[in-house]
Amino acid sequence: MKYKILAYIFFIVGTSDLLIKLFYGNIFSDLTEDYYEIANPILVFTPVLFFSLGGIFLKESKVSLSVENFGTSRLKYYTPQLICLVFVVLIFLFFTFNAQMNMENRGIDFGFGFLNQEASFDIQFSLVEYDGLDPYWWAYVAALLNTLLVAVLGIIFCTILGIIVGIARLSPNFLIKNAAAWYIEFFRNIPLLLQIFFWYYAALRALPLPQDASPLFGVTYLTIKGYYMPAFVWNNLNIFIYLVLAAIISIVFIRYYAIKLRDKEGKQLPVFYISAFLLIILPGLSFIIGGVSLNFEIPVLKQLSATSFIYDGGISVPPELIALTLALSLYTATFIAECVRAGIQGISKGQKEAASSLGLTTNQVLKLVIMPQALRIIIPPTTNQYLNLTKNSSLAAAIAYPDLVLVFAGTALMQTGRAIEIVSITMLTYLSISLAIAALMNWYNKLIEIKEK
Amino acid sequence: MSRFSFLKSDRSNINSLLFTGIILVTIGILDVSLNTFFKLNLFSFLPGITSFLFPFIIAMFGFHLIRIEFTGSKTIDILNKNINTSTFNAALTLLILFVVIKAIPPSLSWMILDANISGDTKEACTGTGACWTYIKVWFRRFMYGMYPNEQHWRINTAFLLVIGLGTFGFFATEKMKKFLALYYVFIYPVMAFMIIYYLISGGYFGLEWIETGAWGGLSLTFIVSFFCLIFCFPLGMILALGRRSSLPAIRYVSIGYIEFWRGVPLITVLFMSSVMFPMFLPEDFFMDKLVRVIIAITLFEGAYCAEVIRGGLQSLPRGQYDAAKSLGMGYWKMHVFVILPQALKLVIPGICNTFLALVKDTPLIFVVGLAELAGMLALAKTNPEWLGYAMEGYIFAAIIFWIICYAMSKYSYNLEEKYKTER
């Protein structure tokens, strides 16, 4: 009991210490300069120390019984932990102290105030409105969105490709099986950076100039300066979106109703066909009577100077984005294909036979018996691969695609010289993306794990 | 007169069906081959796109005809079973065949027939194909970076020595075997470090001092990944033990460390090592860029290594721990003599995979200005005398890395299979 109280006291002290430091600065800063310089690095980390001590006591209150059972003496229990903590704190102190000295010598002070300053550099490609007059934090947002864009595109393409290749790997057809196997062996064993370079510097450079490009699918142009496609110009977009939402909501209700009907009366509704019908008809209606119209803004060739041409209008996808997405999805798809294959192979044949002998149709066997079990095997490693893809998207910096690393840890760092703040922000961003996905995955794993009685 | 149905194969006239089918498939494939190799089109009398699609259609029809169970001919049975199980499969088979046939002539002519390899200057490249002269001229740079040409024997000797010391385990006698772990984890890294430091870096024994800025090419890839591997292994072992420790403070510190490094991309770690790390060191303390990069990658890779080793520790049955404890062994005795020797053997394939990932990650050090293979390629590509040969360079690098990584992945796969049967 006393350990618990001690733990809570330490937690409260640590929290209040942290809050005071955050809002009022160091309370001891009024003291003399000499004292402050030595003590400040230590004082920065007092909350960490308090929290760790609190954690130890909290744990102790729970395990003290088991410790006695195993006969481990108190000394053996505390000494290694204390040494470990002191070691960690000392390393941090050493780093902080040096950082403080170095920054003082170079005349920089630590702080995140620079985020509000004018960035005054340009980003080649961004999803949000950005120009050089905007502050650094807005550049950060634009760069983060670019990173997420690559990650999302890569995840979509690599999933599609990975599933196709993974299934092809199990095909009875000798040629398809081997083609898939060779694809996997080939792309998996070449460093991703080289693949990105290959696509960007070698493959995409072989594309025609804008003025020589012949249209692809009639209205899109694949040129050395990027991929130009028509933009959608919507009229009354909100009505369209409302109707799509209405269709989705009604599908949810119909599914619910169909399950009820099946449980009560044993009737099967063709839910899939009804949903498809609704999804097509309701948005379609909006075009006919809702006053929604869709136009395309088609890119047109425009002459900038005697030899320089560009396509104007529409959406332009820069070649960096194309190269990056291609390389990332081709590379990650090999791993996803292996996950899919392992998942499908992990289901024993008996499951399929048992399900068919119960009288389920082939589709039902796949949907109700095979897939739920295969997904349980497939999803955790696949999520890991998505995570890897997101982290690998930082290689964008090597071909000057304006992602988080290039814009923030590259340009912004060069301009402000605030290495510690900027690198920590970048790392923390990636770390929080990773931890968020990991937490989501753990939650999902809990959801689908086999509930044993 | 027997019935002859084209639409549905039956067994009444099996031989004529097989005969027609095989002829049709052969014609289809022959036409595509003639078309690609000799620019002949057998069906040029057909209008428009039909002449292009015709071989595909007749080959599909041929496959349809020979799709009969137990034809009596072994070859056709094998064909049916492997590439002709259904219409869809037959279509895919034909697609793959045709794509391969169509892809052979351009790639062959680019890679070999129209390529140049003789000569020493750009002018030697007159053909329309690849210019392998470029690779030939730059080969030493790609392998050794800016290291002086007459000193290359030092790198070679160092590598041979390090590899030779590494094979020590194969020749060890039964008596020496118990010291192998000690040797590989502690003695070998130190010796390898000394060899590489004294031989490649020089400055002692009459060898010329060559600064790390001149190191580069594929040899730098090996140096970096080798050092990172041997240093991250002990680190990973400590972290894995820490993560499984029953002492909360040690466990949380290990978990925090592992999750932090696993959550950030390597490129930010490298940025950290090059711009942020110098700020954390005392002012007059200079640390070489290469050393900083190796430390950063070691810290990063140590977390991955820890997870692999933890997997090995977890896969040991609980009985091993209990048995060791019941013999009165303490924590360290138990781990050193009972747990780790078994666990480490189990994780060798996993470590091999980590090393594979490490080798594939190493080109990234190019981002902080170390000229390993990718860096040398970028340098050669922008050389005004050799503009426009990026493709050859990247294909060359891809082939080299592919051979290394493929061999390693096959090796680790074999090890995995071997240990699977042993247990």
List the helices and strands and how they pair.
The complex is a heterodimer of chains A (453) and B (423).
Chain A: H1 2-24, H2 33-44, H3 46-70, H4 74-106, H5 136-169, H6 174-188, H7 192-203, E1 221-223, E2 226-229, E3 231-235, H8 237-265, H9 271-288, E4 293-297, E5 300-303, E6 309-312, E7 315-317, H10 319-345, H11 349-357, H12 362-392, H13 404-416, H14 419-448
Antiparallel strand pairs in A: 1-2, 2-7, 3-4, 5-6
Helix pairs in contact in A: 1-3, 2-4, 3-4, 5-6, 5-10, 5-13, 6-10, 7-10, 8-9, 10-12, 11-12, 12-14, 13-14
Chain B: H1 14-38, H2 50-66, H3 74-83, H4 87-113, H5 132-144, H6 152-166, H7 168-171, H8 180-201, H9 217-243, H10 248-263, H11 266-280, H12 289-315, H13 318-326, H14 331-361, H15 373-381, H16 390-422
Helix pairs in contact in B: 1-2, 1-4, 2-4, 5-9, 5-15, 6-8, 8-9, 9-10, 9-12, 9-15, 10-12, 11-12, 12-14, 13-14, 14-16, 15-16
